[in-house]
């Protein structure tokens, strides 16, 4: 996704970090993978294709994460 947005792959860690925080907040009750309930993990796993699809379909999202995301 970083290359498609016109950025080097060196920014993928930043994008990964932001997406991981989003998944923890939305699907894992703000728990890490190690502390999340199995039901939450299964749900998050099923939702990953939708997260990728939505993330890829929003113009400027990856660029915004790289430029302004913390």
Quick structural summary:
This protein has 70 residues and is mainly alpha-helical.
Task: Encode the helix/strand succession as letters.
Answer: HHH
Structural domain tally: 1
Low-confidence stretches: none
The overall average pLDDT, rounded, is: 88
Beta strand count:
0
Radius of gyration: 13 Å
Proportion in β-strands = under 5%
Helix/strand-derived category reads mainly alpha
Largest sheet: none
The helix content, as a percent range, equals 55-70%
Distance between the termini: 18 Å
Number of helices: 3
- Global shape: elongated
SSE blueprint and pairings:
Blueprint: H1 12-27, H2 38-57, H3 61-68
Can you walk through the features of this model?
By secondary structure, this protein is an all-alpha fold. The protein has one domain (9-68). 63% of the residues lie in helices and 0% in strands. The chain is built from 3 helices and no strands. It has helices at residues 12-27, 38-57, 61-68. The model has no long low-confidence stretch (mean pLDDT 88).
């Amino acid at each position: 996704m970083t290359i498609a947005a016109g950025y080097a792959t060196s920014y993928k860690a930043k994008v990964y970090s932001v997406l991981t925080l989003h998944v923890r907040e939305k699907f894992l009750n703000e728990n890490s993978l190690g502390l999340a309930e199995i039901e939450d993990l299964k749900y998050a796993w099923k939702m990953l294709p939708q997260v990728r699809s939505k993330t890829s379909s929003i113009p400027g999202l990856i660029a915004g994460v790289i430029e302004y995301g913390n």
